[in-house]
Amino acid sequence: MNWFPIPLGPLQTNCYVLHDEHRQCLIFDPGEEADKLKAILAEKKLRPVAILLTHAHFDHIGAVDPIRDHYNIPVYLHENEKKWLADPARNGSAYFLGGEVRVRDAEHLLKHEGEMELGGFSFEVFETPGHSPGSVTFYFAEKGIVVSGDTLFMGSVGRTDLPGGNEKELMKSIHTKLLELPEETIVLPGHGPVTTIGDEMAANPFLHGFRN
Length: 212
Hints:
By secondary structure, the chain is of the alpha/beta class. The chain has helices at residues 34-43, 64-71, 88-91, 167-178, 197-203; strands at residues 2-8, 13-19, 24-28, 47-52, 75-78, 108-110, 114-118, 121-127, 136-140, 145-149, 152-153, 156-157, 186-189, 195-196.
């Protein structure tokens, strides 16, 4: 299994594509620029099987409907944000320039943590609320990667000043879920460069001094 990022939209949200040897792929957080994403997938001859959302903020969902419709694939989202996709006030687009974002309901709602299998891909889902109530993280143990959304970044953590954000929950999620992973685990964040769990444990200033 291999992966690559595609920064999309004005906030350069990282959309990740994970693909296997059969050219099947999973799409994480298609935030905008659907045509750009489709062109890259076509160039690489990849066949998407699902869209997985780390959370439902506008900059992570803007291209969901055109990608879903083009490939006829389902969308997965945590149930705590099932109403966010179509609500600009909840998904945050009402507060930013560029127009309101409204997306149709997800076909599948994630209701608990645990192992999942989709199209031959096996991974774990962690509930990591804090940046938003329904934030989740996807962990691929065999590949040693974790798709963290806006929970953990290189040298930083997710903001908690948006509706539904909670700093205490965020820090608890990071320390009890992400920092429990092997230190060599590669972190694929929602914005910015890739990092590792070990690097963030050693150098991320936001993670030191926290008490659960």
